[in-house]
Amino acid sequence: MCGIVGYIGKQKSKRASEVLLEGLSKLEYRGYDSAGIAVLENDKIRVEKSVGRLAALREKIEENEPVGTQGIGHTRWATHGRPSDRNSHPHTDCSGDFVVVHNGIIENYLTLKEELIEQGHEFKSETDTEVVAHLLEEVYNGDFTASVREVLRRIEGSYALVFMSSKHPGMLICAKQDNPLIIGLGEGENFIASDIPAIIAHTRRNYILGDGELAVVTADSVAITNRAGEPVQKKVFEVSWNAEAAEKGGYEHFMLKEIHEQPKAVRDTLSQRIAKDGTCIRMEELKWSREYLEQFTKIYIVACGTAYHAGLVGKYYIEKLARVNVEVDVASEFRYRDPIVDKHTLFIAVSQSGETSDTLAAMKESKRLGATTLALTNVVASSIAREADNVLYTWAGPEIAVASTKAYTTQIVLFFMLALYMAELKGTLPSERVAELVRELKNVPAQISETLSDVEPIKTFAKQYGFNEDVFYIGRGLDYSVSLEGALKLKEVSYIHAEAYAAGELKHGTLALITEGIPVIALATQKTVYEKTLSNIKEVKARDAVVIGIASADDEELEKYVDHVMKVPETDELLLPILTVVPLQLLAYYAAITRGTDVDKPRNLAKSVTVE
Ligand code: F6R
Question: Within 13 A of 165's CA, how many CA atoms are on the CB side?
Fold first, then answer.
């Protein structure tokens, strides 16, 4: 996710550029690919931006620092358009009188862009944000606030926006929808930021802007109105966190923060990919035809760790919905096993970072053998994205904790959409079924929030079982894939030995390890194999294991056979992995807390594995 800082003051000795750069430096920890600032200098807007680190931007302006007491700044994490000077924020209109920084995604930017080009606007970047500046120029009627309001009426999507205009010195306007934005209150100066750390050095007193609200900020005043233009009275939010806690949004660890960010990450990943009438999936990035797709007789999904586990779910979706043969492989195995790859192969690499060396090497090898390549990644213009013929991005925002959480759920969501897209092209699913699944998919972000709303029972289990040395996870079908991810999460952050087994496989060896008091997490959400899973649960119960069942909200059976049950909201069983993994992530997190491990940086692990 990108970072925003805005500043407006009166004292000539306090340069806006200094406040902006210092604020942006406090957001560096989240990762970014470019940065920029705009300052009102002698009644003109001066924009300075640079791809790469903030240091590059500092160096650029060192000799000739902008003079002015109001400005806006941004660190960018690319979504639309690769990292470059041109694509960095702030963005201006044609005249250079309006400038804007933006976090989020403008969903209807392509339509707006076409209209604006027809009206004669010239675009300088590939971003969705630039349309906002041109649209403001187009609708401007002399009243800055009313014109911004008109822009907000026309854009669709999610945003935190800050506007500045040389025609209206002495004021900044900001607005938000589904992206955080705060206004920091000073004496004779005010601040705007996407995150508390950016301005905590200046003030601890903030207004937290709500969805649909707009604020006009001057050096001495803040006026907040709602969508209808009515004044909103806000309570001042006093930040009591220290700078380190502020980086984590008040959560104790990045892992927990990122688990809680999943509703938004999934919502962002869905955005722009569901048709306006909500009946089918659009994949602007692919533009495949039925003939193009039918040339592939085989799909390989290749990845490492958590991304590999997402790939297992992806296989299930593509085979079930689009009826194409899929093999999933661990990248370090695939690249050395002389796989059968030719021009009829579609190779899908899954990677949060886009930099994992085994996955990249496997992709290069497949390309050499004639395959068409597709990357599912979270980092725009990463090595894997650059190497691939096609790219689909998960828009999860930067993932900082070593243990991957929101990347996994968004990868699954992307696979689900890809499978539906392929199914529509191939005609393997009736359109009513596609529409029904899309409907269910749209509910998922709210259902993740619901799953996250009551963590107390999970904390209790973690305390109760956090000191066990072994934990087993079992499930069938999609539940088995999620079990693998649950066990990996527990291992990596709590250092508890955890194993996941296909439930039907237990009696072929592993059952020997199930003894009195051993915790077994049993996922039983898949209707077609429900009875079979129940028999496996009875097998472990008969050996006096302690069974924690994970079930769908409509299940009234499981609690009769297990010791505890955790339920997730009811949805189509294909979508349940996106929900059932959430309690497993939380269980791993709280088990790690119980054991006092270094949750965000577990021993021996790195976030990006760029060595073999
Ligand atoms: C586990 C984890 C790792 C990564 C793996 C692949 O929580 O984070 O298993 O999933 O190293 O990394 P990416 O997705 O960046 O290729």
Answer: 21
